[in-house]
């Protein structure tokens, strides 16, 4: 373990090339000056990991309170009255979308900014309704997703004229409103826990059906924002920042609380993290995130370390970026890494060398000290774990939460990822890791009948520590 971390530290230094030399030989994208300013202002080559972004503000608190800041005026009305207004309005607007029969799509009757803004207040409240009103919520999601097509090369017929004339402005408002859809509803977690303890299969099935309905509309939104990131040619920098902030906010809302089996966070964990990393990499090419966003990304990742999916995505991105980085650092001297096609495609093909080097360094440091993944008392030092311990009857101390039982496996995955990066720098990645990406820890442990370890076989962690410290093995 310690050996892998030491070598990983050396590899991190290797990952930062001589910028002056690169600047003379590499053709940088149009945002070269912006990346250069960010690099020198942050002083990444001078500051140790603990001081990265120390002079920059964070959006963490702002994004965690995003739901309160964007509350609709209809929230001030009695719940039933607000629901009736939403149901009437969105049913009429959704009838023009042509979702099931595209030929039935009609131009929007909303012709002025005032009309569109009023309608958006209604839809925003609709996204906050209880999950039992899933038909109304679905109509709200469909309306907003169709309106977002204004940022795509071929907008839908049903998009209102004001949205077509100023797509970035309205897209920012829509994306921010979508945050309400992903936030777990109050009381839903309690219902799920009660249903798991209830012997009645009907109550469990009802709870699971409610969670499934929320997951379905969330997937719809995630598909749309992926299309925007991949296909839109007119997204402004402010819109990119809003999109990345939205992805951070929904990941934190779903993943920061202690994990509960089969809740909406558990069902969407891999999906929301995958979309976050994919779009963040695209943004590195089209609109490189500023240090404030990177700092927020790093802070929020520390809240998700009890989720196995975080380390899985972290490993994928690190190796995918390293595979591209080694080609321009060492050229033909290093063998090309054989990684899965879907992992290699995470890095946009036209990402510049400068951008790859910058992004890889930031992603590598986004998880903090990986050794802390083996320490429940470190991982649970978050506001969400403390709040859970206060209100829960079964959890007295944050370290006692059942979800922390997965930390040994999470720690193993992180160490395996670091070991893979070290092996990539040593040129032995392909012979050691190809075909073993998804094997469980038990499958990698040699049996007593296994042949002796070859020079290319990673040293077992127990022996590795003895080698580093110069200590005799336990058997000696």
Your description of this structure?
This protein has 476 residues and is an all-alpha fold. Helices cover 61% and strands 0% of the residues. The protein contains 25 helices and no strands. The two termini are 21 Å apart. The relative contact order is 0.10. Residues 1-36, 43-50 and 436-476 have low confidence and may be disordered.
Question: Which keywords apply here?
Answer:
mainly alpha, 0% strand, disordered N terminus, disordered C terminus
Query: Are there runs of 5+ residues with pLDDT below 50, and where?
Result: 1-36, 43-50, 436-476
Characterize the quaternary organization of these chains.
Answer: single chain
Query: Class by helix and strand content?
Result: mainly alpha
Q: Biggest sheet, open or closed, and with what strands and sense?
A: none
Task: Report Rg.
Answer: 25 Å
Mass-distribution shape: globular
Q: What share of the residues does DSSP label as strand, in percent?
A: under 5%
What would you say about this model in short?
With 476 residues, this protein is mainly α. Helix content is 61%, strand content 0%.
